Amino acid sequence: MDSCRQFIRFAMVGALGFGVDVGILYLTLHIGFGYFFGRVISFLCAVWVTWMVNRRFTFSTRPNSGVLNEAIRYLAAMSLGGLINYAAYSLVIVQGQNIPFLPFFAVAVGSLAGMVINYFSARLWVFKLSEKCKK
User: Fold this and answer.
1) What sign does the CA torsion over 120, 123, 126, 132 have?
2) pTM: predicted TM-score of the whole model, two decimal places
3) Predicted confidence (pLDDT) per residue in 57-69, tens digit
4) Among 84, 91, 92, 122, which is most exposed with the fewest C-beta within 10 angstroms?
5) Chain centroid to CA 27: how far?
6) CA neighbours within 13 Å on the CB side: how many for 5?
7) Biggest CA pair distance of the chain
């Protein structure tokens, strides 16, 4: 699959992850976890969902290609982009108290900030190793 198509698929899966992230964040806010701890929980849920979909849809790895190791690599890779994501999210939360739909907007800014790093770390490290296993 060419890189452009793969990036588009990654972005589509990212949109799904964004929906999970925002939905879980609003749930955790409703429960009382707050903007920062709630976002940790919502981010981890989004990472799990995007890993499950990306491994089948975007990068087409086999179901038995070292699933646990792949999951750990994916979490590690997404955590790198996640730090940038969380920093951008936090900046918006702290500075944007008057913004309507603040959590939604802050997650969007954070997601966009980390997306490119997440794509390349997934493509060149997480799923590249899985592709070697298939050969």
Assistant:
1) negative
2) 0.84
3) 998 765 556 888 8
4) 91
5) 18
6) 6
7) 53
